[in-house]
Amino acid sequence: MTEETRAHKYTVLSHYSPVKSLLEIKRSEFIGHVKRVESEAEAREFIESLRKTYHDARHVCSAFVIGADREIQRSSDDGEPAGTAGIPMLQALLARRVETANGGESTDLSDICAVVVRYFGGIKLGVGGLVRAYTDAVVQVLDEAELVPRRRLRLGEIAVSHADAGRFENDLRAQGFTVLNTDYLPDQAVVRIGVIDEDDAKHYTTEQVAALTAGSASIQWTTTQWV
């Protein structure tokens, strides 16, 4: 992830194991799957694995969204009438509403691949029926999945003396900061922490470091990391 990434957080599946759900409409089976993926290659590998598992299915339609800013978006109708499967599935992913910590809602689901396998039941659903079926199949499997926020941390380094390092780590943790590790160099100890990569959080951290060290140490901000 580059420094230019705009988003500070987005929503992902809580784990990498696939989630599966069955929807039956007029004797057709729509088997929905979602999986957390980190790249387009991972998404396509997941799609192909299901294509092999359901080798006798009429259609294996898919959609995936990847990246903090959802910059990668792909979909496939896999033989269904154009626009009746892949695009509705993609829209279901993009429109998924997730509750935020402050009681609001966001539509920032990403790093996810959805696949809907269809076994035809002999009754045609029509264009509108197919759109609803593929949309509902994705919505239903998402309802059964656990979603969590993924946040971008700004990493910072604070140089203190060897004698003060242990106490300073404890003070940081007591203030709710995430201490990542401490390097003991020949002439000093470097304590590394991670905070939410937002201006208010970094400003607060700078003030707290100064207060905890009576102004004898300051924080140097370095790279970012997603957690």
Please sum up the structure shown.
This protein has helices spanning 40-53, 86-94, 126-143, 162-174, 199-212, and strands at residues 9-13, 19-25, 28-36, 59-66, 72-76, 98-99, 105-106, 112-119, 147-160, 178-184, 189-196, 219-226. The chain is an alpha+beta fold and 227 residues long.
What is the count of β-strands? 12
Low-confidence stretches: 1-5
Radius of gyration: 23 Å
Globally, the shape reads: elongated
Helix and strand run: EEEHEEHEEEHEHEEHE
Structural class: alpha+beta
Q: Quick check: average pLDDT?
A: 94
Largest sheet: 5 strands, antiparallel
Strand content: 35-45%
Spatial gap, N to C terminus: 12 Å
Task: Give the topology.
Blueprint: E1 9-13, E2 19-25, E3 28-36, H1 40-53, E4 59-66, E5 72-76, H2 86-94, E6 98-99, E7 105-106, E8 112-119, H3 126-143, E9 147-160, H4 162-174, E10 178-184, E11 189-196, H5 199-212, E12 219-226
Antiparallel strand pairs: 1-9, 2-3, 3-8, 4-5, 4-8, 6-7, 9-11, 9-12, 10-11
Helix pairs in contact: 2-3
Can you walk me through this structure?
- 30% of the residues lie in helices and 37% in strands.
- With 227 residues, the chain is α+β, with helices and mostly antiparallel strands.
- The chain is elongated, with a radius of gyration of 23 Å.
- Mean pLDDT is 94; it is low at 1-5.
- The strands form three sheets. Strands 1, 9, 10, 11 and 12 form a five-stranded antiparallel sheet that branches. A five-stranded antiparallel sheet has the order 2-3-8-4-5, sandwiched between helices.
- The chain has five helices and twelve strands.
- Helix 2 runs parallel beside helix 3 (126-143).
